[in-house]
Amino acid sequence: MKNRKDIIDLIQNTDEEVFDKLVKDYPQSDKKKADRLFRQIERRVDNDGLNADAAEVSGVERYRPQFFRRAVSIAACAAVVAAGAGTAYTLRKNAPSAEKSPATEITEEAPSDMAASAVTVPETIDKGYIINLCSNARSNYSALSISYTNDNSTDHPSDHIYTGTLQIDNTADTFWAQEDVDILWKGSSTKKYSGFFFACGNNKVFRIAEDEEKYRVDNNYPGPDSMFYRPEKWVSDWLSPVENWDIGDKLTYIGRDCIAIHGKRRIDNYDISFTAFIDTETGIPLHFSQKGQYTNLFEVNSITYNDNSGFMTKSEFKEFLKNYEPAEDGYDLSFLDESSDAPEEISQEWLYERCRNVENNFTRCFMKTDENGLIVEKATDNQKGVKYYTTENSGRIEYVFGGKRISVFTETKEVIENPVENMKSIRYDGFLDDLSKWSVIGRERYLGRDCAVVRISGEASDTQRYIDLETGITLRIGVYDAEGIDYTVETLNIYFNDPTMIYDPVDMIYMIEQGGYTVEDGLDLNFLRGNTTTATTTTAETTTETAATTEPSDEQSSDIFAMLDALNYHAISCDGLPTHKLTAPSGTYYALHLGETAADSYVWRRPSLIADADNEAPLTEEVFSAIRENWNSLDIVKLNYKD
Amino acid sequence: MTDSDILRLITESPPKGHRALFDEYYNYVCAIAARVLRDIGSPEDIDECVIDVFSDVILRLDPDRPESLKAYIGSAAKNKAISRRRSLLAKSGRRLDMDEQGFAAIPSGENIAGNAENKAVSELLMKEIAALGEPDSTIIIQRYFYSRKSAEISSIVGISPAAVRLRCSRALKKLRNALKGEIL
């Protein structure tokens, strides 16, 4: 026998007798894994029974999908309808969503077993799981492509039927939509328009009507506020309060495992009932039916996760815009520049320096990784001095703020302090220190990011890393032994400059206080109440795309905090859930339940203004309006119900 | 537990019967799936194949028609694994040739008997693997027979993935030395 390959061949291609002996003598002794697989088998077998039921359900109720467009403005529609000369050919030719992802193709490429995310779906789905899943839906996929139909009958003077495609690239933080709209004027004619929309991060939406030769900023288009791009809106609008909805059956819809929910809510003093089918792996509502005064039917016709090939990039969109004239002068397009200071030839020294300083190369970063099956979330907000690290199902969150670290055990409900040093986070761990052991072997795009591919040699195996050239963050690791890849770490999602993805210190204190946690003797958690806007700042200049993060105006903020403090507080009575939070520079925490109007909006203030009791106050029209009007200048954060 | 015990249990208490069926044949199905898919699929593909096999068997098995469960499950496993292999090959752009068609066939004892020398080497190798002692023998079998990753093996044998890789490499070296001169 000459070499190891002969030995391996013999083990892998034994005769039946030896095969049986090996099975008997060397059983798979990982009982946990066997149990996990068996649970999946049980689920598969159960679902096969349910699928037949689901097919029957969808056969009876011919729902049309809708609810993406929660509040389309008439003005926006009218503006698009007021079209000029046609440029349809050019638009179609350049629109990636229209040309490269026709619905038929998406359907074929969206089998039910397609892994959208690494979320572990529990056997029994409860409301907490659904709220958490939907609140964090955006972190459950890196890219999303949907074709949909939206049959929208509201109190508008017309009915709207929208068909379109929607593409969201979470890694590039871009949103692209193409829509064809039939506007059925009641009892009379039909008008149509087609439009293209592009948005990036918190920047404004650019809209191009198909028959218009100009592009314009459209502040009324709800796309980037849709439930897909900002899923927290869906949760706060429809899943809160939790008493207003119930969990229905499991079913399969367009090849995806879903859970039905049925609920009621009140809009403009009308009772509305709704049914939604929620993708149990991602939290994306694939079907929504609203009945009552305002009807709305939204159906996703096909869906593809995690494939951003063919999506229009920011720089491509910038080129695309050159085909048109701006409707007004002065649009700032600089946020579409994909700037990189990486040299054409990546030298070892340059890359080493970039990686060594990784923590200083971004302002905020949230990343979710699959480390050989273990799902890890880590995030750093340099502006606030926050770091956290948690693994799925570990029941443990490591959290750093203001130079102190706490470990929060969500199952045993304990909080202890630990040394800041050695906490896992987005950091450099010395993998490039020995320059003789590695080399740059290529340059490739990974998750839409420009990466250097590095090969590092080791004693028993080699390691290959994809390193983001802009920040020095490793996005993928493969460990290779003689037989091929053996271990992988893959980034599923990465976000820069999205503060809503990162736990605030007030999130932590709220969770700990509301959750009845036992805090280690001598550990004072008041450090979490520190002034988040003046916390440790270690950010260096970054080349990362910077979303428009508007700092609150001190004057406006203090006015609103004063208005909030002057409300008529009384002992807590409302059993609804807060939808948003707002923190004053003093550390005072306001949990807000923001409904459609002031009449169904509340605030809970911490510390309480009432002795020995939690307090709440209904929002007045004045305060409600002030919050809405100054929304962009306030640091209002949607609550995620992480725990 | 015998096949008839499992079939009876499936009739009397399906959940218990299905678990018994799974416990009895899990290793067998894993080994078949690994054998067919190891060079083209990931460990996740192998797991998925195992799930497919048992789901299918549970849904289709008629407990009133006793037969050799091993043959039935073995056949289902081979078919599912080949089907998944075809799909993976198609995705990778590789063609399914004649060799691929017969890929899943486990050489029968009858065929092997025709090659006594080969069989003797095979048996000698198994003996040498056992002689490696634990955890090395388990590492070698889990790695190459079941195609498991070092990280998974590490949780079985209780050492780090890096140590698993190192021990695996050294164990192969030992086997090569022990079998030097043997002809395949």
Summary of the model, kept short:
The complex is a heterodimer of chains A (643) and B (184). Chain A has 643 residues and is of the alpha+beta class. Chain A has 14 helices and 30 strands.
Q: What do these coordinates show?
A:
The complex is a heterodimer of chains A (643) and B (184). Chain A contains 14 helices and 30 strands. The longest helix of chain A has 30 residues. In chain A, the strands form 3 sheets. In chain A, strands 7-8-9-10-11-1-2-3-4-5-6-12 form a 12-stranded mixed β-sheet, with helices on both faces. Chain A is globular. Chain A has 3 domains: 245 residues, Lipoprotein localisation LolA/LolB/LppX (outer membrane lipoprotein receptor (LolB), chain A, Clam); 153 residues, outer membrane lipoprotein receptor (LolB), chain A, CATH 2.50.20.10; 89 residues, no CATH class. With 643 residues, chain A is of the alpha+beta class. Chain B has 2 domains: 99 residues, Rna Polymerase Sigma Factor, Chain: A (Orthogonal Bundle); 70 residues, Winged helix-like DNA-binding domain superfamily/Winged helix DNA-binding domain (Arc Repressor Mutant, subunit A). Chain B is 74% helix and 0% strand. Chain B contains 10 helices and no strands. In chain B, helix 9 packs across helix 10. The longest helix of chain B is centred in the N-terminal third of the chain and has 24 residues. Chain B is elongated, with a radius of gyration of 19 Å. At the A-B interface, helix 1, helix 2 and helix 3 of A face helix 2, helix 3, helix 6, helix 7 and helix 8 of B.
Helix content of chain A: 10-25%
Q: Spell out the helices and strands of chain B N to C.
A: HHHHHHHHHH
The count of strands of chain B amounts to 0
Total helical segments of chain B: 10
Radius of gyration of chain B: 19 Å
Number of helices of chain A: 14
User: How confident is the prediction overall: mean pLDDT of chain A?
Assistant: 73
Q: Which spans of chain B of ≥5 residues are poorly predicted at pLDDT below 50?
A: 93-114
The CATH topology of the largest domain in chain A: outer membrane lipoprotein receptor (LolB), chain A
Which structural category do the helix and sheet elements of chain A fall into? alpha+beta
Structural class of chain B: mainly alpha
**Any idea what the shape of chain A is?**
globular
